Amino acid sequence: MINLILVSHSGKLAEGLKDLLREMAAETPILLAAGLADGKIGTDVGRIEQAFGNISDDALILTDIGSATMNAELALELYAGDRDIRFVDVPLVEGGFLAAVLSGQGKSLDEIITALEAEFKK
Amino acid sequence: MKLTTNDLRTALLNAADKMEEHKDELTDLDREIGDGDHGINMSRGFQAVKKELEAKQDFADLGELSKLVGMTLIKTVGGASGPLYGTIFVKFANTWKGVGEAEGDALVSGFEEALEGIKTRGKADAGEKTMIDVWTPFINALKSEGDLSHAIDEGLAHSKTIMATKGRASYFGEATKGVQDPGALSSSLLLNELKEALHD
């Protein structure tokens, strides 16, 4: 089942979104790379790489703003593992809902990305 | 113009001191039109670079030095500046792999690759009130053998007058006109030190 990696500046935002997504897709594995140490706001390429190390299948990354996206793209460039991990630039909350549900339905990474782009990149 | 590995190392040590001197100014500017952490982030990143460079004095070439600096900045700066400044040095490292001294086209292409890297990473271009507005005139002057100091100052001054359309500052719209972009200022500090490292 495709894993979702949520990259946000705020740990609380990501935790809250994970709770929301759980209601819709209880089975979809969701990993967080959000906030900094001591609950500070920010994004950290190291946390994204940590999430990459903990995925159980191929994965999709969703981000909030600015440096979350830059750090996600950078982490992907540095990734040397053999999972297929991809980033799609769509709204974090709405995109997360669609991706979580589709992953729960057993859709492939390609199918999920195609659906997200059709929904949000009109 | 020529850049040697040892001169680049010295320039980076000096840049670390400059970031420290301007730490509060960078943070204050970022508080006005951003999230108020630029000075803190740049200080943390360049102090980490300084520590690495003090621990290792001899580098095989510009590539090895640049790679260490890039990876250190990526890991320690944070914010948007980490991936952006990190990308500059990763691009230097790729272009100058195995190169002990860069001059002429090889020198220029390192800077051009770095600028392309920032543009791609930040999805930004010149004229958006970012660090790109200082790097662009610097590289143009490098190519045309113009006055590098003048190019940095002009770029910095022009970027102050325009409105931010990229990054967090863009949310402040018109209010950004007349405020110095903190990323443009930190880039001018770094480029002024790199300029000192370039010799005929």
- At CATH level 3, the topology of chain B is Serine Threonine Protein Phosphatase 5, Tetratricopeptide repeat
Order of H and E elements of chain B: EHHHHHEHHHH
The largest contact between protein chains, plus residue counts on each side, is: A-B, 14 and 16 residues
Unreliable parts of chain B: none
CATH architecture of chain B: Alpha Horseshoe
Q: CATH H level of chain B: which superfamily?
A: DhaL domain
Instruction: Give the DSSP E fraction of chain B (strand runs of 2 or more residues).
Output: under 5%
What count of domains describes the coordinates of chain A?
1
Describe the main β-sheet of chain B briefly.
Answer: 2 strands, antiparallel
Unreliable spans of chain A are: none
CATH class descriptor name of chain A: Alpha Beta
Domain count of chain B, please report it.
Answer: 1
Strand order of the largest sheet of chain A: 2-1-3-4
- Give the CATH architecture of chain A: 3-Layer(aba) Sandwich
User: How is the quaternary structure best described?
Assistant: heterodimer
Q: Could you describe the largest sheet of chain A, including whether it forms a barrel?
A: 4 strands, parallel
Output mean pLDDT of chain B. Answer: 96
Tell me the overall shape of chain A: globular
Average pLDDT for all residues of chain A: 95
Number of strands of chain B: 2
CATH class of chain B: Mainly Alpha
What does this structure look like?
The complex is a heterodimer of chains A (122) and B (200). By secondary structure, chain A is of the alpha/beta class. Chain A has one domain (3-120): 3-Layer(aba) Sandwich (Rossmann fold). Chain A is 49% helix and 16% strand. Chain A has five helices and four strands, in the order βαβαβαβαα. A four-stranded parallel beta sheet of chain A has the order 2-1-3-4, with helices on both faces. In chain A, strand 3, helix 3 (67-78) and strand 4 form a beta-alpha-beta unit. In chain A, helix 1 (11-24) packs parallel to helix 4 (92-104), helix 2 (45-53) crosses helix 3 (67-78) and helix 4 runs antiparallel to helix 5 (109-120). A two-stranded antiparallel ribbon of chain B has the order 1-2. Chain B is 68% helix and 3% strand. Chain B is globular. The relative contact order of chain B is 0.16. Chain B has one domain (2-197): Serine Threonine Protein Phosphatase 5, Tetratricopeptide repeat (Alpha Horseshoe). Chain B has nine helices and two strands. In chain B, helix 7 runs antiparallel to helix 8 and helix 8 packs antiparallel against helix 9. Chain B has 200 residues and is an all-alpha fold. Classes of the chains: A alpha/beta (122), B mainly alpha (200). Chain A binds chain B through residues 36, 41-46, 65-67, 70-71, 73-74, and chain B through 35, 37, 74-75, 78-80, 82-84, 86-87, 121-122, 167-168.
